[in-house]
Amino acid sequence: MLTTKPRGTNDIMPADISKWYHLENVLRRVAKQYGYSELRTPVFEHTELFQRGVGETTDIVEKEMYTFTDRGNRSLTLRPEGTAPTVRSFIENKLYADPQPTKLFYLGPMFRYDRPQAGRYRQFHQFGVEAIGSCDPGLDAEVIAMAMDIYSRLGLKDLTVELNSVGCPQCRPVHREELQKFLADKKDRLCPTCQGRFDKNPLRILDCKSKECQNLTAGAPTIAELLCDACRKHLTKVQDYLQAFGIPVHLDPNLVRGLDYYTQTAFEIVARGIGAQSSVGGGGRYDGLIEQCGGPAVPGIGYALGLERILLTMEQQGITIPTEAKAHVFIAALGEKAQLEGAVLAQKLRQKGLVAERDYLDKSLKAQLKAADRLRVQYTVIIGEDELKNKQALVRNMNDSTQMGVSLDKLESYLAEKIGRGSNE
Length: 425
Description:
37% of the residues lie in helices and 21% in strands. It has 15 helices and 16 strands. The chain has helices spanning 17-33, 47-53, 59-64, 83-92, 137-154, 172-183, 192-200, 211-216, 229-245, 289-292, 307-316, 336-351, 365-374, 385-389, 411-419, and strands at residues 37-38, 44-46, 67-69, 75-78, 102-111, 123-132, 159-165, 249-251, 263-271, 279-285, 300-306, 329-333, 356-358, 379-383, 392-397, 403-407. β9 and β10 form a beta hairpin.
């Protein structure tokens, strides 16, 4: 067991890390361009935050949270999602006193005890944005447009925005009542979990993964049929903005999402043709969540995507992810004096902002050149006894195999100029 990772976790190996860097760089760059600032919250929170914020009848709270009692007898939970911690931080740090809206993004590991499958792990990484302080339907559309912008820059294709409204405190009770009427004579055939949801939160039954429950809810009244005028107008305006942005939308009256805090706008973005796990992200509006968690009555909307799911989708769609060379310069030194000279040179190059590697195993020149080739370096510096006598090194261009002698005292500036990195970055 000591040499086996826990089920549902994954090692991100050095060979793959450049893919993660590329994805994270795109996410941070787009977030900045849309006016979002990064927030980093603790990996664990008080359990009550998720019970109250996510919803006690959700699958996340009922089945999937990693909850433990600490030595102070406090119930803590590894965060299963990022919105509730963001809202807690918004309230605790009184960000509502700042000019609104507050636009935040997060990027980090989340934890859910779920059945591991392709693109889904028990420890997974999530990027999300939260725009708090405005009920403007144009902001809803902008969050969706931002998500589509991210996917476009990553090269994803064949995406569809699935959109719905899950109503508000005025129209949701009407839907709840109609749904309970529809399911009343079917209640005994629902799964045990959904039987418990019948009185507490019948809307969650529509999100059940059980085939039997899905069959029993077929034809159930949808919230879309029972929206109040305000929610209907809000949904129409969101569609108008998205149409103006040139983003096609498919209205899905059965889309409810898996969290209790959503109001009005709910959406998912789906990639067609990649299998059953086709959702690459989603989100919605949560106008009552801040107040529910103990803050002022401030509206908000957010969106999240799973990094593992995105990388898997990129792979399935054949998208080439840019990779970086592991080093700019490799120093091939032969003999003790040359190795010392090479080690000093490597340090000086690193201090100039270059990535320098050298041999640590006293290999032959041929083996060192092979190592340099595997690292995909731009230049290899060769230093041996003859080079030390002449106070110069051979610099080999690894792209065309040309080489020239460069005096040792000019080597740093020569390489820095060639590689175009200059001084410290």
